[in-house]
Amino acid sequence: MLTSRNAPNRARRLRRLALVLVVVLVAAGCDNMRDQAKFHDPYAPSETFGAAARNLDPNAVPVGFERTDEHLYEGTVDGRLADSFPFEITRETLEEGQRLYDGFCSACHGYSGYGDGVVAAEGYPMPAPASYHIERLRDMPDGYYFQVITDGFGQMFSLASRIQPEDRWAIVAYVRALQLSQNATFDDLPPELQGEF
Questions:
Q1: 3-12, 23-32, 125-134, 146-155: least confident range
Q2: Which residue, 52, 75, 124, 127, shows the most beta carbons closer than 10 Å to its own?
Q3: Looking at residue 162, which CATH number applies to its domain?
Q4: Residue 58 has pLDDT above 90, yes or no
């Protein structure tokens, strides 16, 4: 029987070709498991991660953020708007209040509080920003201003997420200083200063 010397090599090549063909056909049939049935609910609670992916209870209070001081955090005392400040107002408090007022409030209310800031000057739609020097606003309790900064009013948006409660009170103190600077009378001066005039 005559056989070629290349016969074993040819058989080996055919086997390799058949193997490559099988691998190519199997690989072509793979669809990255797109249509495979899922064995778990992707929204089911995870035993591995616990509560990490769940929404927090809306009544949960982060550690260190208890807000039990009604006067400081809400601007009220016994449910009524506060007529006083929850801490002593110092020169540093007024300076911080001015810095914050200039950054957050002066664009609308103006640097002197007349409602004539650059926003009003550029034709912002009515109503114009409030002037702190009208009698109605001068007579408002301090808690009113705190709540307006906290919750917003009219066209003004809430600044609660941008300004901490202590800093809101500093702004209120500065607004009161602005009101006093524009509306003070001679009788408002302490007696020792009245003698100098």
A1: 3-12
A2: 75
A3: 1.10.760.10
A4: no
Q: What are phi and psi of 42, to 5 degrees?
A: -65, -15
Does the residue 117 lie in any domain?
yes
More confident call, 65 vs 154: 154
Q: Of 56 and 130, which is predicted with more confidence?
A: 130
pTM of the complete model beyond 0.85: no
72 pLDDT higher than 60 = yes
Gap between the Cα atoms of 193 and 42, Å rounded: 75
- Measured between alpha carbons, how far is 68 from 171 in angstroms, rounded to an integer? 22
Name the nearest CA neighbour of 132 among 122, 150, 117, 118: 117
DSSP string computed for the chain: ----TTHHHHHHHHHHHHHHHHHHHHHHH--TTTTSPPSS-TTSPBTTTBGGGSPPPTT---TT-----HHHHHSEETTEE-SS-SS---HHHHHHHHHHHHHHTHHHH-TTSSS-SHHHHTTPPSSPPPPTTSHHHHTS-HHHHHHHHHH-BTTBPP-TTTS-HHHHHHHHHHHHHHHHHHH--GGGS-HHHHTT-
104-123 mean pLDDT:
90
Number of domains in the chain: 1
Domain-embedded: residue 106: yes
The residue segments making up the domain with residue 114 are 82-183
Residue 52 lies in a domain: no
